[in-house]
Amino acid sequence: MAAVETNDESNLPWHLGVYDAHCHPTDTISTLDEVANMKASGLTIMASREEDQDLVRQAANKFRPPRLIPSFGWHPWFSHQIYDDRAIEVDQAVQRPEKSLHYTTVLSPTPEEDDEDFVASLPDPKPLSEVLVHIRSNLDDHRLALVGEIGLDRSFRLPMQWDPVDQGKRDPKLTPGGREGRRLSPYRVRLDHQRMLFKAQLNLAGELQRAVSVHGVAAHGVVLDALRECWSGHERRVQSRRARKKAAHSANAENSGSSVSTETEKEFLETSASKPYPPRVCLHSYSGPPDCLRQYLDPTVPVLFFFSFSCLVNFSLAASKAVDVIKSVPNDRLLVESDLHGAGKDMDDLLEQVVRKVCEIKKWSLEDGVQQLASNWRHLIYGSSDTGTA
């Protein structure tokens, strides 16, 4: 792609297809009808908790691909609401955990007796098996659906319970279950519990060979470790240049100049065989350092990683860090997103802003940049950049 002058003030070529790799319009369900009027060609919308799984499903039934691609899964912010019942299936003597015992086990610091009102305000925990059955059902009904938003987060804290004064100030437009402006408690979900849920959902995505949208905050090393544990033993064998040349000569391959073997291309695009790891992963609003990219892009890694960027996260504080990372991401692995919690003009505006920023950083023309980003989005969703149209 040829370099061009930056600061392009021309109109964004929306007609070429601008796609949002990660957003949450069902968090403000009243905005959902605005999807039909948006300039964006497609939205990849996320589920995150019990209250929005069916809302995402309903949205997917209303707007068909590529206008809307659903994702089903549980965000780490809500992982405390799930308990691992896999031991119960093996040993029937193990009973459903008592509510207060469950939360004292998975929260850090351990809630004290004088904070029993906070624990009492939390929902009764759900068994992991039930959660996975629900996700599987939604994935079965939507063949292009991703697993998401899932991941790990070291920094978030649970919101406090509603007090009588604030209860009356709740915004009825917002889907319940989120923070909704509440004060934060001192409690976090223990990382080992988050990992349990994260890996269970990764394994399901691998079994059904679905792409995944991953959240990682202050946890880039442990996110990579969890993913690596899933593909351990399935690393790709990388042929030497000499071996590739010999194979190409023997087969009289038409594309002998390719740096990637035909066998490797088929391996990436194969979607039928179940594996313990997902075929494609989008690291949403990626905030890791440039050095980490090499580990995700290592040729032995059997997962195709994409790196998505948003104005709300990546250009709000450490913009210089985002610039360095975007420069280092391969052109065919870049995605853009709004990460916005409502559809409509604001979402389009955020998408345009981040597209322009990425094009400026990469020194792409707007036309070339939009086409490249659209191709990358199709590759994430369909498994091939040649599938789907704007």
Which helices and strands occur, and which strands form pairs?
Elements: E1 19-23, E2 42-45, H1 50-62, E3 68-72, E4 82-83, H2 86-90, H3 99-106, E5 107-108, H4 116-121, E6 126-127, H5 128-141, E7 146-153, H6 164-167, E8 188-189, H7 191-208, E9 212-217, H8 220-231, H9 241-251, H10 262-269, E10 280-283, H11 290-296, E11 304-309, H12 311-314, H13 319-328, E12 334-336, H14 345-362, H15 366-382
Commentary on this structure:
The chain is an alpha/beta fold. Helices cover 40% and strands 13% of the residues. The relative contact order is 0.17. Residues 252-271 have low confidence and may be disordered. Helix 5 (128-141) runs parallel beside helix 7 and helix 7 (191-208) packs across helix 8.
Structural features:
390 residues, alpha/beta, globular
Sheet with most strands: strand arrangement:
1-2-3-7-9-10-11-12
Radius of gyration, in angstroms, nearest whole number: 22 Å
Q: What is the global morphology?
A: globular
Pattern of helices and strands = EEHEEHHEHEHEHEHEHHHEHEHHEHH
Multimerization state:
single chain
> Given the helix and strand composition, which structural class is it?
alpha/beta
How much helix is in the residues?
Answer: 25-40%
Mean pLDDT: 89
Q: End-to-end distance, in Å?
A: 20 Å
Strand tally: 12
User: What is the tally of helical segments?
Assistant: 15
Instruction: Work out the strand percent.
Output: 5-15%
Major sheet summary line: 8 strands, parallel
Q: Which consecutive residue ranges, at least 5 long each, have pLDDT under 50?
A: 252-271
